[in-house]
């Protein structure tokens, strides 16, 4: 008997998913545990393995398309089985539920979306809906005009390649497709290196002489970032505490440590270790705001903000205060690699009790970060700068790092945050105490 396979909820914050790739096609036999598709969630691209068996009768979501959780992903059944009645019942039930849940909306201007499966040479085609108030600018006419303007030179592009090009800001006119009949496919996007030019089209080399733009569909990750940080910024009363830290001793300690360890220790690893040790001494900062109560966490799990192409991920170093510098370094490097390859799993980014955002490697001296809920605080770390400082009554060069602690005033008061920062500062300015015996 035919049965529906629904879009799975693959993370705690996932509301919809994008099918990046189908590994099965209609007519294929699927066994329990077979890899069926790759699905982009709000955090990563994950493999979806079937927990049902049968023949793939129907695909409900095309590659590159988004759909809400629990919508029809596919239908499985016996080979040749009629699934259309089941599909019709499901669609009718969905339509009834929508009409019952929402009041009748006023009539809105009619919008028509022209699928951008073909892009003119030298430009990235937009798939944004086009409002058509008059027949004179209907989509077929626009396509005819574009064809004339480009000498009917067109690039064939797969939907997935087009989406990836949009996300990475790659001009499709700069590519020469390696697919059938010159079609641009995913591998052409993966192999493209900025600064190369592989297209024979003279249009791509011309300077832009008219106004133009492109619109990129917001990814699941970016949607979640926007929602969560908007909620944090506009619901949590932030206040900020900034402090200068003398990093001369850490600079010397890092140089010495890296001479005896197999793992290269970064300044950020010292920051994580110092923050974890300071949190152990100031548990009120290691807190979570839960609305009607405050949770004071006994464990210390530090989230490390990692930048990826589509936004920001926060993998978690668990029980950070009990780990050595080398262990922290290995873990952070592995998380950064997995984040960039979209291989992080839900257990990698859940459960943080405190977060660190470090932009020092981008030469940013000072900034404020938005709290990562439900944490009560986040630490923004700037670059280490060599500046004139006064020591023992004389001016001399010194290495100084600015940090800013963002606090949720509902859970953490100014004095509490200040005491934490002073302990954090003392540990970095005297790293011998921070490292201790067996902490390297």
Write a structural description:
- With 440 residues, the chain is α+β, with helices and mostly antiparallel strands.
- The chain has three domains: 3-95, OB fold (Dihydrolipoamide Acetyltransferase, E2P); 111-205, Irregular (Dihydrolipoamide Transferase); 220-435, 2-Layer Sandwich (Chloramphenicol Acetyltransferase), CATH 3.30.559.10.
- 30% of the residues lie in helices and 25% in strands.
- The chain is built from eleven helices and 22 strands.
- It has a six-stranded mixed beta sheet. It has a four-stranded antiparallel beta sheet with strand order 1-8-6-3, with no helix packed on it. A four-stranded antiparallel beta sheet has the order 5-4-2-7, with no helix packed on it.
- Strand 21 and strand 22 (394-408) form a beta hairpin.
- Helix 7 packs across helix 8 and helix 7 (267-281) packs across helix 10.
- The chain is elongated, with a radius of gyration of 27 Å.
The helical percent reads: 25-40%
Query: If helices are DSSP runs of H or I spanning 4 or more residues, what is the number of helices?
Result: 11
Shape: elongated
CATH homology superfamily of the largest domain: Chloramphenicol acetyltransferase-like domain
CATH class of the largest domain: Alpha Beta
CATH architecture of the largest domain: 2-Layer Sandwich
């Amino acid at each position: 008997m035919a049965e529906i396979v629904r879009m799975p909820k693959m993370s705690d914050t996932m509301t919809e998913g994008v099918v990046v790739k189908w590994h099965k096609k209609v007519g294929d036999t699927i066994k329990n545990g077979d890899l069926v598709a790759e699905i982009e969630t709000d955090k990563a691209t994950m493999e979806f393995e079937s927990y049902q068996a049968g023949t793939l009768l129907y695909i409900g979501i095309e590659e590159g398309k988004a759909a809400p959780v629990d919508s029809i992903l596919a239908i499985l059944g016996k080979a040749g089985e009629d699934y259309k009645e089941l599909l019709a019942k499901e669609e009718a039930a969905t339509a009834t539920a929508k009409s019952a849940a929402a009041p009748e909306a006023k009539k809105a201007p009619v919008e028509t979306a022209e699928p951008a499966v073909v892009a003119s040479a030298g430009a990235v085609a937009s798939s944004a809906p086009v409002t058509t108030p008059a027949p004179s600018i209907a989509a077929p006419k626009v396509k005819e005009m574009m064809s004339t303007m480009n000498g009917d030179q067109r690039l064939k592009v797969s939907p997935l390649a087009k989406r990836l090009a949009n996300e990475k800001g790659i001009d499709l006119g700069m590519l020469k497709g390696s697919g059938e009949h010159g079609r641009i496919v995913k591998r052409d996007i993966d192999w493209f290196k900025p600064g190369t030019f592989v297209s024979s089209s003279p249009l791509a080399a011309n300077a832009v002489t008219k106004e133009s733009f492109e619109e990129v569909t917001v990814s699941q990750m970016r949607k979640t970032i926007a929602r969560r940080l908007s909620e944090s910024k506009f619901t949590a009363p932030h206040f900020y505490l900034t402090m200068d830290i003398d990093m001369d001793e850490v600079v010397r300690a890092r140089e010495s440590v890296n001479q005896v360890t197999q793992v290269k220790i970064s300044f950020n690893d010292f920051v994580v270790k110092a923050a974890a040790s300071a949190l152990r001494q100031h548990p009120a900062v290691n807190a979570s705001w839960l609305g009607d109560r405050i949770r004071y966490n006994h464990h210390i799990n530090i989230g490390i903000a990692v930048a990826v192409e589509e936004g920001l991920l926060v993998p978690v170093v668990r029980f950070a205060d009990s780990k050595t510098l080398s262990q922290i370094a290995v873990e952070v490097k592995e998380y950064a690699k997995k984040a960039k390859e979209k291989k992080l799993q839900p257990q990698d980014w859940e459960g943080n009790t405190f977060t660190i955002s470090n932009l020092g490697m981008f030469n940013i001296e000072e900034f404020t970060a938005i709290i990562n809920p439900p944490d009560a605080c986040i630490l923004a770390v700037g670059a280490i700068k060599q500046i004139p400082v006064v020591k023992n009554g004389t001016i001399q060069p010194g290495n100084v790092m600015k940090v800013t602690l963002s606090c949720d005033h509902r859970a953490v008061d100014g004095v509490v945050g200040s005491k934490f920062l002073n302990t954090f500062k003392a540990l970095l300015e005297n790293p011998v105490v921070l490292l201790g015996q067996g902490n390297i």
